[in-house]
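Quick start: what a row looks like.
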Amino acid sequence: MADALASGASVRKDVGVQVPPRPQLMLVRFSPVVQQLSQLRRSQNLLWNLTLRELRSKYRRSLLGWAWSMLNPLSNMVIYWFVFGVVFGATAPIGDPSGIEIYALYLLSGILPWGFFALVTNLGLGSLLGNSGLVKKVYFAWETLVFAQVIFSFVQLIVGSPIAPWLPFAFLLMLLLAVYAAGFALALSTLAVYFRDLRYLWTIIIQVMFFATPIIYTPDKIEGKVPQVLEFILHWNPMAVFVQAFRDLLYSGKAPHWGHIGYLLVASVVVFVLGWTIFVKQSRRLAEEL
């Protein structure tokens, strides 16, 4: 860690007195996110070392190790399959053109992208609070703490996903989902510093989002049962489109619609830019608040 800090950060000498503004914030008005990219590039060695730290320590001394990256979504699949498939009799549509009609696989194809989104946002939310000592004592691109969690979660998704038959499309979807989730993680990481209750509130919000996304049920189940405006929002919620795109690959056995890919590209970029903008604006007093 010392080597990483030496390559991507400089030690602050005025801790406890006043936190100096980040240079890029003073120079740029119209494109703060673009300027932050150059600052992040100077901290790429630190980002690499932080990511390696997460990868090496996640399942250290665990008997099953990285097998947990697949066992976690599988266990969720079994639970939801038993409750909704066995007890309540939920069924899955027939995959076209795969011909598959297995509710457990239908669940898994939706749980995988949702689990990644939940993991990134939860880890990102606590990334600054969990490294408060580092933020207060060392000056570097603080975004690296969030991006290290995103990259770690991305690797875990690759390890725990059956994506081989559709690797190019799956990689594109995972990359877009990583960008989308990173936007949330950036905003949540800074807001959680100022509003400590956000850590508990987010667990409720993400649970509501889970059941509002067609993961355990098919999208047609809500047609005509909710106001049209709400139905439109639920249908075009980016996570709902991500889930549908992953299901096209993993359940139906076909490439996602290019219209969905285009929509997800725009949504991911917009959310990422908004999240990073919030991070930049709120980061001026992070060290004092921590």
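That is the whole record. The chain has 14 helices and two strands. Residues 66-289 form one domain.
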